[in-house]
Task: structure prediction
Amino acid sequence: MYQPKARHPLSSYPTDELAKLCDELWSLFMAIGTFWKLGDDPEQYRSVFETFIDNRIAQNPLYPEFYRRTLRLFSTLQEEHNFDDACEVLFVQKDHHVPAQLTPTGTTPLTENDFLQMYVINELIQFRVACGSFREFGAINYCGFFGGANIESEPVPYRTPTVCP
Amino acid sequence: MNVETVIVGSGVAATAIAKTLLEADPKATITILEAGTRVLTKDYGLWLQYLMSGHLPYQDRWDLPYPKRDAPGENEIEGYNDFSLAGSRVFTYGGSTLHWGGWTLRLKPEDFHLFGNTGQGANWPFGYDELEPYYCAAEDYLAVSGPSNDTTVPRSKGYPFPAFPLTLQDELLANAFHSLEISYGQMPIARRGVSETPSRHAPCQTTGTCKYCPFGARYVAGNYMDDMRAWNNYPGLEIVLGGAAETINLSSKSRASGVTYLDLASNTFKTINAERVIIAAGTVESAKLLLRS
Result:
């Protein structure tokens, strides 16, 4: 009766390969903060990042391949241009930063790069934000951010009016 | 199968009444009959999927627009307005509490005298005062956070948890109400806060993802039913999933003797004999079941 962890029936990814993949993806994840000049230390997110990757693969067994192809794309872009230009392509093309269900073509991206943008890059950016990357700018109540419990007599974990009406 | 009580449905009404019966008699034999199946709750992977894609893990349990859901001709709308249920109910273990917003407003005393006040509808057979203690019990059970100083309805007891502070977004409206001299209040919501009362259920951490709470802070009947199964010694509590109640069986014109249901896995009809039948399948399905019986 007690519920198990949600897992796709075909998802069974070897632990050592998961660790290797996380190591490789970590550089891409860190690049988001480097490129956007986020001041927080990404190392604090390492464990939740690995949990994130583990869960995405558990949900969909194709994710390891999505991740490998994205790493190849990131590597190719850096070889053809440089780190900043590669990040420019991956992290700031707003046209691609649209949830899949809102795309004019429905739910399926038309090219491989669009696909990777949507299902890997956008997710990593979203997760980086949800980790609390914009806290130093005062933004602490965005979707998915774990601000902490709502404890009486202590500051609430989200923004409130300076003086509550 | 013979049990003391069979409850049709596994939502908030079913879970609350099962809890009450089992607390009165832990050895009571109760079978919960649920047509839907389980959607995992408090699962980090499913929560991530919702956060990343906007896809909720119970979307495929929502009503489809009629007549797609049912056979042509069944469930036709006879009124002037099309009353779509698409997206309003969830057919699953725990019922619609899986996706509800947790709003827990009480009716006002005047609502109990609708016919007397307006000449339309009907009066309730009892008044607000008689129901008030049960509202308090329900708010305790649902772990409601709300403004105990709210004066729109008489209260004999405050909410179990204080109201959540306004957000910056709320401030805009609050200021507008102030300037227009319109009173306003905060929505009581079944989102657990923090108190000294110990609980197995986690408090809200304001992730902004109430539609799929990663902690189970917003009341979901299935979580409470799971708790009764996992942490209490209730040997007589059984849950049948994928069992669509077909008819309530009667031993006389005024006495129910059990329920016949369609076991969706085997596509066979089965019967549970019971001394007591409680129908808690929601407004529409309960009425349909009564009409079929």
